[in-house]
User: Which sequence fits this backbone?
């Protein structure tokens, strides 16, 4: 059942796309409880928004627009981290392992977008 996406990519558009794909895969295999359905919707939205806003940043109309989109990508990565933590995986080890990897990726994306923002706003 594992998504098996251990290969690191340095193309941030592709990396954020893969993150969103992996989140969707996890949600598809998450136990269907009322909480998971609602939290799942939230994490699907926020995970997809990371890459969508990064794409928008690359097509920005100016530096202010670019910085705003990068900040939103960072915010959505932090939000994805939060929703992933809330999921009830009923201690299913394979799902827990994938969640841990996704949480780590969300943290890395948060740091990457934070660094881009800091370097671009200087």
Assistant:
């Amino acid at each position: 059942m594992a998504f098996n996406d251990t290969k690191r990519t340095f193309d941030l558009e592709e990396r954020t796309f893969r993150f969103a794909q992996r989140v969707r895969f996890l949600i598809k295999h998450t136990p269907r409880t009322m909480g998971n359905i609602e939290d799942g919707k939230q994490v699907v939205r926020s995970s997809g928004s990371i890459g969508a806003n990064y794409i928008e940043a690359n097509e920005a109309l100016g530096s202010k627009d670019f910085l705003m989109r990068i900040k939103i990508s960072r915010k959505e990565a932090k939000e994805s981290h939060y929703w992933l933590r809330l999921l009830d995986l009923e201690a299913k080890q394979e799902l827990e392992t994938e969640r841990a990897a996704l949480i780590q990726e969300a943290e890395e994306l948060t740091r990457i977008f934070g660094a881009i923002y800091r370097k671009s706003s200087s």
Summary: The chain has one domain: 12-121. The chain has a mean pLDDT of 93. Helices lie at 12-28, 34-58, 63-86, 93-121.
